[in-house]
Amino acid sequence: xxxxxxxxxxxxxxxxxxxxxxxxxxxxxxxxxxxxxxxxxxxxxxxxxxxxxxxxxxxxxxxxxxxxxxxxxxxxxxxxxxxxxxxxxxxxxxxxxxxxxxxxxxxxxxxxxxxxxxxxxxxxxxxxxxxxxxxxxxxxxxxxxxxxxxxxxxxxxxxxxxxxxxxxxxxxxxxxxxxx
Amino acid sequence: xxxxxxxxxxxxxxxxxxxxxxxxxxxxxxxxxxxxxxxxxxxxxxxxxxxxxxxxxxxxxxxxxxxxxxxxxxxxxxxxxxxxxxxxxxxxxxxxxxxxxxxxxxxxxxxxxxxxxxxxxxxxxxxxxxxxxxxxxxxxxxxxxxxxxxxxxxxxxxxxxxxxxxxxxxxxxxxxxxxxxxxxxxxxxxxxxxxxxxxxxxxxxxxxxxxxxxxxxxxxxxxxxxxxxxxxxxxxxxxxxxxxxxxxxxxxxx
Lengths: 180, 254
Description:
The structure holds two protein chains of two kinds. Chain A is mostly helical. Chain A has one domain: Butyryl-CoA Dehydrogenase, subunit A, domain 3 (Up-down Bundle). Chain A contains nine helices and no strands. Chain B is an alpha+beta fold. Chain B folds into three domains: 58 residues; 41 residues; 121 residues, Immunoglobulin-like. In chain B, 43% of the residues lie in helices and 18% in strands. Chain B contains seven helices and eight strands. In chain B, helix 1 packs across helix 3. In chain B, 26% of the residues are buried. Chains A and B meet through helix 1, helix 2, helix 6, helix 7 and helix 9 of A and helix 1, helix 3, strand 1 and strand 4 of B.
């Protein structure tokens, strides 16, 4: 295998699962997300390897292409995700993302369930920041916005998480056995 | 200091450049409230990283759920025969339609084809979709044989049949890679093992050659089969097989 192949292999090992999760969060369907990830790596092999040079860039490239692919699936299949931000933001409290259903069924943790209640954009930037260690600038490139806006989204998301975490924690009152 | 400020969050997450970072650091040092906010934000960031890492682990182990299904006696007793029957019927219908269309198209193509075949000079892409990425989940057992005569249908000397859950799961993980990589060095080492991946009922999922490439790395090269999508030349591509020790336990020429 050539150096380029080894590089793709290394990228697959590192990013296949994170991309799979990222696409699933957008599409809400693991199988379709899997196709998108496959297509992303095919595109990387075709021209991404040539268009990226530094070690930080492949992550941005892969997530950008994966996101575009996932959004195309949403458009083609008329899934109501990310397509009309204003509409989504006005309806986000009443209509959860498909991923939220998956999370509700399979949530591994308390915090995951709270994250799933956040608006899609905030979930997206949190995942890119805290699961994939991407910088504000890289996230801005992927999500086609500004680094300042990413900062605002993350700040707002963390504030909401803190508040929701505190509220949800109140439901878990310590068990005090009756002694009489 | 106002703690409801995205700049303070960016500072806590080490996202500020100089001189802004120093300015905020001075302000934080003078404000216990801001210090508490920064500590809490960093704590929250650590928790989020742990939570997202747990999600990744869940996703990684998801491929094993097929094995859970495989071990479920209800599935094999009831669901599988029904699913098999339905699949065979569907396959027969699709094949009949496909064959009819293929014949029609072939006749048209024959009439329109140029007498001189032109070979494409375009370079091959570095990757191609892995045709067995999804069906690898169906693998139930693997027949490992040494290739004595590399010709198709040539002599093979069987080494073993692998059917234990652990090695099958490792093999499935390797075969579920989304893409195959361009095989620049197509000359295998002198010894080659042939791996035949089969479903529980013996239906073949794929066959691959397992060998050490010239660069010393082990690879799997899927062989063309009736199920290979038309226009696909698998001989130009390989799957890296770094986990051969866990998946098979031995390798040709290792």
